[in-house]
Write a structure and sequence with these properties.
595 residues; alpha+beta; 5-stranded mixed beta sheet; 3-stranded antiparallel beta sheet; 8 strands; 74% helix; 8% strand
C-alpha cells in the first residue's frame, strides 16, 4: 500500500513537471527586465540592451543561478566593449569574476578581477579588484587574509554592508583553513549582522555556512541556535516558502543530533505551512523526510496516513501553488529573451548590410565626384594650356603692316641712294625686333622694357614719316616703373593704326600722344591722335586693306580676352573718334601687376 502511494506520488510530480519553486517577486523582476530589453531592442539602443542584460544577470545571481548570471554578463560586456563604455566595462568584468568565483571557476575569476583592476578609473576600485585577485591567487593564507582585510577596511569606509559581509565570510574561510575556530565563528557572525538588513539572500547563505560550520564541529546546539535565530528574521517570517525551507533545515540538524521526535514535529509544522500557503514541492519534501523518520521508527501506519493525507490535499494544493504558474512564466520569459536576442541579431545584420550599402554608395559617389573633379580639372588645365598657346601665338604674330612697311621704308631709302638713312632705320628696326623676340616668351614684361619698345617703334615711324607727325610719351610719376609689369607690345597695334590710318593722310603735320597714368589700383593708357579719324579712314581704304587691318585688330582684341581669362587683368579697351575735333582716342585700363 505504501509503495503504491509512493509510485502514484512520483507520477503526479512527473506529470505536473514540478521545478524548483520561486516566489512571485522573481517573476515580477524578470518581466520588468524583459520589458526593458524589448524596449531597448525596438529602439536599437545597444547600451539599453547591455544594461538589461546586467539587470537579468543580477536577478539570476540573487537566485543562486551563477552560470546564467555569467552568461548574461558576458553578453553585456561584449556590447560595452563595442561601445567603448569603460566605466560599465570595469563594473561588469568584476561581476563576471564574482559569478565565476561562486562556480569555483577560480582561474577565470582571477583573470577577470585582474582585468577589472587594470580598467579601474580610481585607486579604490583598483585596490578592491587587485585584492580579490590576490585573495584567490596567493599561495599562503596570511597573504589571503591580508588581501581580505584590506577590502574589509575599504568597504567599512564606504559603508558598503554587503561588501563588508562578503569580506567577513571570506575571512572566516581563511580562519577555518588556519583551524582558528573561534575567529571563524566571530567573522561569520559579523558577516551575518552586516548582511541581514540589506542583503537577505546573502544573509541566508552566511547563516547556512555558519550552521554547516557548527555541524562539522559537532556543535549542534549552536547550529540549532543559529537556525532558530534566522527563523526570527522578518525576511524569513514574511516569506512562507523560505520559512518552510529553514524549518526543514532545522529538522535536519535535529536528525543529525539524533533527536527524531523534535525533527518530526518540525517537519509536520513545515508540512502544515506548505499546505496552507500552497507550496507543493516544499510539502512533498516534508512528506519524504517524515516518511524517512517513520521508516526508522517502524511507524508504517503513520507513513501511510501521511501519504493519504498528502494525496487527498494535492489537487487543492496544486490549485493554490503560485510557483507552478511562476515557473511557466519564467520559462516563457527566458524564451522571450532568446527571441529578443535573435531579433536584435537580425536587426544588427540588417543595419550592417544597410551600412555596407550606404558606405558603398557614398564611396561610389566620392569616387565619381573625384573622377568628375579630375576630369574637370584636366579639362580646365587643357583649356588654360590652349589659351596660353593661343596667347603666345598671338603675341608672336607681328602686325603685317609693321613688317611690310618697315621693309618698304628700307627699300625706299636704298632706292633714293640714302644709305645713311637706310642704315639708321635698319639699326632701329633690328633693335626693336630683338626686343620683341626677347620678350616673346613672356605674357607680361617689365613696364620699362615695354616703354623702350614703344619708344623705338615710334622713333622708326617718325623716321619714315618725318613730315607727317610728332609724338609725345608721358608717364605718371606715381607709377612704380621698376616693379610694374604689363602685357608686351599690347599698345603697339593701336599706335600703328594711329600713324598709318590717321596721321599719314593729314595734309599738315599731326600729333600723337601716348600717356600712362595711375588711377587707384588700375593703369590707364590713352593714345590720342589728331588724324583723319575712324570714319574717314574707312572711306579711303581698299577692300584688301580693310581685310588686313580687321585681322590685326581682331588678334589684339582676342589677346585682351585671353589675358582677362587667364590672369584676371580686367583689361577694358575703348576706341572712338574724338567728339569735338578730328582724330581718334583709344583708352586701355587694366589691373596693376607687380613683380
Amino acid at each position: 500500500m505504501k509503495l503504491l502511494f509512493k509510485i502514484l506520488f512520483i507520477f503526479i510530480l512527473a506529470a505536473g513537471n514540478f521545478c524548483s519553486a520561486q516566489d512571485s517577486t522573481r517573476v515580477s523582476k524578470a518581466s520588468k527586465s524583459v520589458s526593458k530589453l524589448k524596449k531597448a531592442v525596438d529602439n536599437n539602443d545597444n547600451k539599453g540592451v547591455a544594461d538589461s542584460y546586467v539587470s537579468i544577470a543580477g536577478d539570476y545571481y540573487n537566485q543562486g543561478n551563477y552560470a546564467k548570471s555569467e552568461e548574461f554578463l558576458i553578453k553585456a560586456r561584449n556590447i560595452y566593449k563595442n561601445l567603448n563604455d569603460k566605466k560599465n566595462l570595469e563594473a561588469v568584468t568584476r561581476k563576471i569574476a564574482q559569478s565565476q568565483e561562486k562556480q569555483k571557476k577560480i582561474m577565470p575569476a582571477i583573470s577577470n578581477y585582474s582585468m577589472a583592476a587594470e580598467m579601474s578609473f580610481d585607486e579604490k576600485s583598483r585596490a578592491v579588484n587587485s585584492n580579490d585577485a590576490a585573495r584567490l591567487s596567493s599561495p599562503s593564507v596570511e597573504q589571503k587574509a591580508e588581501a581580505i582585510q584590506n577590502n574589509i577596511n575599504i568597504s567599512l569606509k564606504d559603508k558598503d554592508k554587503s561588501a563588508v559581509a562578503a569580506g567577513y565570510s571570506q575571512m572566516a574561510e581563511v580562519n577555518i583553513q588556519q583551524n582558528n575556530i573561534p575567529k571563524a565563528e566571530e567573522n561569520l557572525n559579523n558577516a551575518y549582522v552586516f548582511s541581514k538588513k540589506e542583503a537577505p539572500q546573502q544573509a541566508l547563505e552566511i547563516n547556512q555556512k555558519l550552521t554547516d560550520f557548527y555541524i562539522e564541529n559537532k556543535n549542534f546546539e549552536k547550529a540549532i541556535e543559529a537556525k532558530k535565530k534566522v527563523l526570527k528574521e522578518d525576511f524569513v517570517k514574511e516569506n512562507s516558502q523560505e520559512k518552510v525551507n529553514q524549518i526543514q533545515e532545522l529538522a535536519d540538524i535535529y536528525i543529525k543530533k539524533n533527536d527524531p521526535q523534535e525533527a518530526a514535529a518540525l517537519l509536520r509544522n513545515a508540512y502544515g505551512i506548505a499546505l496552507d500557503k500552497g507550496h507543493t514541492l516544499e510539502a512533498q519534501k516534508s512528506v519524504k523526510k517524515l516518511d524517512s523518520l517513520y521508516a526508522i521508527t517502524g511507524n508504517t501506519d503513520a507513513s501511510v496516513s501521511l501519504y493519504r493525507d498528502f494525496l487527498g490535499k494535492l489537487p487543492d494544493l496544486v490549485s493554490k501553488d503560485r510557483s507552478l504558474i511562476d515557473n511557466k512564466i519564467l520559462e516563457d520569459t527566458e524564451q522571450r529573451i532568446s527571441q529578443l536576442e535573435k531579433e536584435k541579431q537580425l536587426k544588427d545584420e540588417l543595419i550592417r548590410k544597410k551600412n555596407i550599402f550606404n558606405y558603398g554608395l557614398i564611396g561610389a559617389l566620392v569616387v565619381l565626384t573625384a573622377l568628375v573633379f579630375l576630369i574637370f580639372r584636366t579639362l580646365k588645365k587643357v583649356q588654360i594650356k590652349n589659351k596660353k598657346i593661343a596667347l603666345q601665338s598671338l603675341r608672336r604674330e607681328m602686325n603685317p603692316h609693321f613688317i611690310f612697311n618697315s621693309l618698304n621704308s628700307v627699300n625706299h631709302f636704298i632706292a633714293t641712294n640714302n644709305e645713311l638713312e637706310a642704315n639708321q632705320y635698319l639699326t632701329k628696326f633690328s633693335k626693336l625686333m630683338r626686343g620683341v623676340m626677347e620678350n616673346s616668351a613672356e605674357d607680361f614684361i617689365p613696364f620699362q622694357q615695354e616703354l623702350d619698345l614703344l619708344q623705338n617703334y615710334l622713333a622708326l615711324e617718325k623716321t619714315r614719316f618725318a613730315d607727317k607727325f610728332d609724338y609725345e610719351i608721358d608717364t605718371d610719376e606715381n607709377l612704380n616703373i621698376q616693379n610694374l609689369k604689363v602685357p608686351g607690345m599690347l599698345v603697339q597695334p593701336f599706335l600703328e593704326n594711329a600713324v598709318w590710318h590717321g596721321l599719314r593722310y593729314r595734309s599738315e603735320k599731326g600729333f600723337l600722344k601716348l600717356n600712362f597714368e595711375k588711377e587707384d589700383s588700375h593703369l590707364k593708357i590713352t593714345i590720342e591722335d589728331n588724324g583723319i579719324g575712324i570714319k574717314e579712314s574707312k572711306k579711303q581704304k581698299t577692300q584688301h586693306q580693310k581685310t588686313r587691318e580687321g585681322r590685326g585688330m581682331k588678334n589684339t582684341l582676342e589677346r585682351i580676352k585671353l589675358l582677362n581669362d587667364l590672369y584676371n587683368t580686367d583689361i577694358i579697351c575703348s576706341i572712338k573718334d574724338k567728339d569735338h575735333s578730328s582724330g581718334v582716342l583709344v583708352t586701355l585700363t587694366m589691373n596693376l601687376t607687380s613683380t
